[in-house]
């Protein structure tokens, strides 16, 4: 019979890579991503009984890691002030599906662009596009009204469209 | 994703995942070593408590763990009954419990890090902290008095342990009540040279009664669809059964 820790390690082995990677995408810093992922698994072990739907384990730990990463970023003042780039939105970027096309060449650029947008937008973008979470799920995990999720997502996409041009 | 996706959404989704795959991950073993160190720390503190209440001679180790890979979760949950196996002079009473549920409770992420060591507190105070009813047996053997309840603060579904002290110094009696709100696994391994094991009925549920001859203590384990119970202490078979049946 496996012990509690051994069983938990199975979960860790299964999800560590994806959770570290998504946390890195949000934090854009390997040390923060590592520490936040580590913290998230510790918290997950301690509070796993609160998770009633076990199918959501990965998303739940990812959201915890994201929250931890953002806390760490804020404490270390590494966040880029949103005002420095947010004015780009007002320059006009119609919400047209054909407006921006991400090509192979722009993949690396995407990582650079992600670094330039505020972490609160990165978080939404990563949870939305890396994990395929719905706006409602993002709101639930981040304790945020769905309306706020939608507006942040809209602004985040507008920024990405603009910056990826 | 069930929500509407335009071309930009689809491309972002694809590119972000592709970008993610190219991120090198740190050494898993090193990260795990740190995690394991952190999660074992409170367990060591708990073991001191367990030793006190289970009378050390017993070679029982109770393991409660989670078994919740996405594979299992997506397959749905099944309630697996306790199994008893014997080999050589070891008996193993083990089981896996999986329960159905709907959603992550709100607070699960914000409450992160608030799990605390269990503390002995009065029954009423413990009840106020919980989302389920603590069951107090109506029939407690003479001499035992409820000293308090161990419960983890900040956790409304925390297992509880009712702690009874014997006024004559006979030893302590404990009753553990654990709501089955999560997938769990447990195992009691007992050297049968030192123990007698029998199956009994508690309210229609099959229960396992163990008598530890060396320390003259008994343990009764059973579960209902919603709860897992353990009673443990220096009581007779009749007494432990009456406790259980009065719950």
Detailed description of the structure:
Chain A is an all-alpha fold and 165 residues long. Chain A is built from eight helices and no strands. The longest helix of chain A has 24 residues. The radius of gyration of chain A is 17 Å and the shape is globular. Chain B contains five helices and eleven strands; from the N terminus they run αααβββαββββββββα. In chain B, strands 3-4-5-6-11-10-9-8 form an eight-stranded antiparallel β-sheet, covered by helices on one side. In chain B, strands 1-2-7 form a three-stranded antiparallel β-sheet, with no helix packed on it. Chain B starts with 6 loop residues before the first helix and ends with a helix. The interface between A and B is large, with 72 and 68 residues.
Helix-strand category of chain B: alpha+beta
N- to C-terminal distance of chain B: 47 Å
- Intertermini distance of chain A: 56 Å
Give the strand line-up of the largest sheet of chain B. 3-4-5-6-11-10-9-8
Largest sheet of chain B: 8 strands, antiparallel
What's the rounded overall pLDDT mean of chain B?
A: 69
Report helical residue fraction of chain A: over 70%
User: Greatest interface and its residue counts?
Assistant: A-B, 72 and 68 residues
Give the rounded overall mean pLDDT of chain A: 79
Low confidence ranges of chain A: 79-100
Give the radius of gyration of chain B: 22 Å
Helix amount of chain B: 25-40%
- Count of helical regions of chain A: 8
Rg measurement of chain A, Å: 17 Å
Number of strands of chain B: 11
Please give the number of β-strands of chain A: 0
Tell me the overall shape of chain B. Answer: elongated
What is the percentage of strand-forming residues of chain A? under 5%
Low-confidence spans of chain B: 46-81, 99-117
Major β-sheet of chain A, in short? none
User: Quaternary arrangement of the chains shown?
Assistant: heterodimer
């Amino acid at each position: 019979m496996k012990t509690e820790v051994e069983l938990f390690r199975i979960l860790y082995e299964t999800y560590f890579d994806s959770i570290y990677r998504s946390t890195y995408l949000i934090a854009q810093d390997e040390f923060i991503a590592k520490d936040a992922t580590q913290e998230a698994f510790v918290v997950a072990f301690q509070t796993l009984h609160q998770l009633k739907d076990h199918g959501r384990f990965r998303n739940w730990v990812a959201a915890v890691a994201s929250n931890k990463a953002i806390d760490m970023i804020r404490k270390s003042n590494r966040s880029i002030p949103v005002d420095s780039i947010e004015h780009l939105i007002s320059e006009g970027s119609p919400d047209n599906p054909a407006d921006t096309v991400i090509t192979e060449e722009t993949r690396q650029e995407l990582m650079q662009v992600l670094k330039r947008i505020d972490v609160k937008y990165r978080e939404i973008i990563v949870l939305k596009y890396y994990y395929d979470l719905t706006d409602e799920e993002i709101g639930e995990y981040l304790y945020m009204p769905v309306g706020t999720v939608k507006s942040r997502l809209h602004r985040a996409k507008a920024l990405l469209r603009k910056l990826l041009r | 994703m069930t929500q509407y996706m335009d071309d930009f959404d689809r491309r972002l989704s694809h590119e972000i995942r592709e970008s993610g795959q190219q991120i090198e991950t740190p050494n898993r073993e090193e990260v795990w070593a740190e995690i394991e160190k952190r999660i074992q720390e409170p367990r060591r503190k708990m073991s001191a408590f367990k030793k006190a209440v289970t009378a050390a001679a017993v070679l029982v180790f109770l393991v409660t763990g989670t078994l919740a890979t996405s594979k299992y979760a997506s397959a749905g949950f099944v309630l697996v009954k306790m199994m008893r196996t014997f080999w050589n002079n070891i008996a193993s009473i083990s089981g896996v419990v999986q329960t159905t549920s709907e959603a992550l409770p709100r607070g699960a992420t914000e409450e992160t890090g608030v799990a605390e060591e269990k503390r002995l507190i009065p029954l009423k105070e413990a009840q106020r902290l919980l989302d389920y009813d603590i069951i107090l047996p109506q029939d407690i053997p003479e001499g035992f008095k409820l000293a308090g309840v161990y419960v983890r603060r900040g956790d409304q579904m925390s297992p509880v342990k009712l702690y009874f002290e014997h006024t004559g110094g006979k030893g302590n009696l404990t009753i553990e009540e654990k709501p089955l709100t999560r997938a769990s696994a447990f195992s009691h391994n007992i050297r049968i040279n030192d123990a007698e094991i029998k199956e009994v009925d508690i309210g229609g549920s099959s229960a396992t009664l163990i008598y530890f001859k060396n320390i003259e203590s008994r343990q009764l384990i059973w579960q209902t669809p919603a709860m897992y119970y353990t009673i443990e202490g220096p009581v007779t078979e009749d007494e432990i059964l009456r406790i259980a049946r009065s719950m």
